[in-house]
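FAQ

Q: What does a record look like?
A: Structure on top, sequence underneath. For example:
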């Protein structure tokens, strides 16, 4: 895998890892639409499981990328 692709995938994995971890730890995430309607992440029953899963996927991708480079 070339260096440009490695940088791209490293960025994607880091983004998934960071976002999953922050959502899992911080809890309520409110998203307000242009219309003024508000959506709260914690209203979804499996929101923590989903984002912890994303965090684990990001960690696995990061470890695989480092292993391939080493």
């Amino acid at each position: 895998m070339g260096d440009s692709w490695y940088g791209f995938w490293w960025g994607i994995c880091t983004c998934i890892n960071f976002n999953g971890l922050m959502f899992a730890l911080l809890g309520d995430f409110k998203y307000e639409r242009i219309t003024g309607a508000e959506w709260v992440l914690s209203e979804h029953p499996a929101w923590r499981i989903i984002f912890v899963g994303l965090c684990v996927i990001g960690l696995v991708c990061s470890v695989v990328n480092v292993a391939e480079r080493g």
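Q: Is there anything notable about this one?
A: Helices lie at 3-26, 47-69.
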